[in-house]
Design a protein that fits this description.
- It is a multi-pass membrane protein.
- The protein is mainly α.
- It has helices at 23-34, 36-51, 56-78, 87-95, 97-133, 142-160, 163-192, 194-200, 207-218, 237-269, 280-287, 293-326, 344-363, 368-400, 406-430, 436-459, 463-466.
- The chain has 17 helices and no strands.
Length: 483
């Protein structure tokens, strides 16, 4: 009779603070990664500039439906697998290691470049905020670069202290920011009156404009799936992670709709159009006689960007940790701090690089705002590509576990097709704009990363069987075992 234990003594992701995060900390991760406060103040303007003010509400609503559909597809995995590798691990389990490698590269681009974008956005917003008191700071990007470096160091310090502390910091920052944005939205809608609110809700657009606007609006939702990277660290992963993903997608979408509605109403009351706006926060607070609220909201946007950088880096280092633990990435990245349970080697490698990207680009002659647009294109491309692949992975995964049913399969395949079209549209729309550098960077980096990863698989055939690791029950988890 074999004496081998029924379950393993040690989890494949040992070293992390397993089963330590309560639901509130798990929710903090995707909420901060999405950065809803920063997105709510800028998304309507970006959609209006791309497709016209009349398409804003419909485009945001369609993007909301699409984000919820992706969340439902991702949750087919999160209810069954607790994986720090997030979508990368899920695609390996559904479509195999080759597709998983492509997804992993896409996720690294998504998390990494959105973290760089958030740091750049925080520095840019901090410079605008400081220029209110010292107008001389409004010239050039040098003050923003100083802020980027300082904020990058602050993010590194918080993240190194452990997931519990970083989750609580980001949650407090984002809740305060969302509260301030919510107060402004309610105030604008109340001041406008029922008639103006109803007129703003009447769509005056065309199908092509809605398609263009939806592609732009979708970029504001990316990051909601990042709760899946905490699957091993959540106390009740199969319950809290799916809820965090779905609630974040739906809740931020509702905030975006309300913010877009309020901005449409506010600009109409001021006798202008949202499509002609430059800085909605400053312009609307001034138009409604509450200019004092502008600096407060600018500070909230800075805080939201910082929270986004923290959450995105948290997800990034956990994907790298998974790859290092498997052997797809250097083994050193699969180690953790023995006392803090944090993947500090991955953090040491990535965060300085993420901070340097916008700084180097500006020093090379680019404007910070243009750099931010390019970074966002790369990040959004990575996210949307990974979303399409994870949706395509749902049918084979459900078939393998013997739980394939018609509804989830149809939803997954339809969503994968729509996302593939959205990705193509996003890249095509970037050409002829300052964002075209981001489109080229995404295509080159995704291709180079995928080629390198697939070449590693060919050189090391046993590696294929090691991809897709996730947290599994161990002896200490069983009832009656010692902790």
């Amino acid at each position: 009779m074999s004496s081998r234990p029924v379950v393993a003594v040690r989890s494949p992701v040992h070293g992390l603070a397993r089963r330590s995060l309560p639901v509130i900390d798990v929710i903090a991760q995707p909420l901060s990664a999405v950065a809803p406060s920063a997105a709510a103040t800028t998304l309507p303007l970006l959609v209006a500039a791309a497709s016209g003010a009349g398409a804003v509400l419909v485009a945001v609503a369609v993007a909301l439906v699409l984000a919820v559909a992706v969340a439902a597809c991702v949750n087919q995995f999160t209810r069954r697998i607790a994986a720090t590798g997030s979508l990368y691990t899920f695609v390996v389990r559904g479509l195999g290691p080759r597709a998983g490698v492509v997804t992993g590269v896409a996720m690294l681009l998504g998390y990494g470049f959105v973290a760089s974008f958030a740091l750049a956005g925080a520095g840019w917003s901090a410079q605008r905020l400081a220029a209110r008191a010292w107008p001389g700071l409004a010239t050039g990007d040098a003050p923003a670069l100083v802020a980027v470096v300082a904020l990058g160091a602050a993010v590194w310090w918080v993240l190194r202290r452990g997931i519990r502390r970083s989750a609580r910091v980001t949650l407090v920052v984002e809740v305060v920011s969302m509260t301030l944005i919510g107060v402004l939205v309610v105030a604008l809608l109340a001041a406008a009156g029922p008639g103006a609110v109803a007129r703003a809700a009447t769509p005056q657009t065309t199908v092509p404009d809605v398609v263009v606007g939806t592609v732009v609006a979708l970029t504001a939702f990316v990051g909601f799936e990042s709760a899946a990277t905490l699957g091993a660290e959540a106390r009740r992963p199969f319950r809290t992670v799916p809820r965090a993903i779905l609630w974040t997608a739906a809740g931020t979408g509702a905030l975006y709709l309300a913010a877009a509605w309020a901005q449409l109403v506010g600009y109409a009351r001021a006798g202008t159009s949202l499509a002609d706006g430059v800085s909605p926060v400053d312009e609307l607070t001034t138009a409604f006689g509450v200019a004092w609220a502008g600096p407060v909201l600018d500070a909230a946007v800075v805080a939201s960007f910082v929270a986004c950088a923290m959450a995105s880096t948290t997800a990034l280092v956990r994907v790298l940790f998974t790859m290092g633990r498997e052997g797809l990435a250097p083994r050193g990245l699969g180690r953790v701090h023995p006392g803090l349970g944090t993947p500090t080697p991955a953090l040491r490698v990535t965060l300085p690089l993420l901070t340097a990207v916008p700084v180097v680009a500006v020093l090379a002659g680019a404007r910070l705002w243009e750099v931010m647009q390019a970074l966002l294109v790369v990040a959004a491309g990575g996210y949307v590509a990974a979303y399409a692949l994870v949706c395509a992975a749902v049918p084979p995964f459900l078939r393998r576990v013997g739980e394939r049913t018609r509804g989830p399969v149809v939803l997954a395949l339809a969503t994968a097709v729509v996302l593939s079209g959205a990705l193509a549209g996003m890249l095509l729309l970037a050409h002829g704009t300052p964002r075209r550098a981001g489109a080229w960077a995404f295509a080159i980096l995704l291709g180079a990363g995928a080629v390198a990863g697939l070449a590693r698989l060919r050189r090391r055939p046993p590696l294929r069987s090691r991809l897709g690791v996730y947290d599994e029950p161990v002896a200490a988890d069983l009832l009656g075992e010692a902790a």
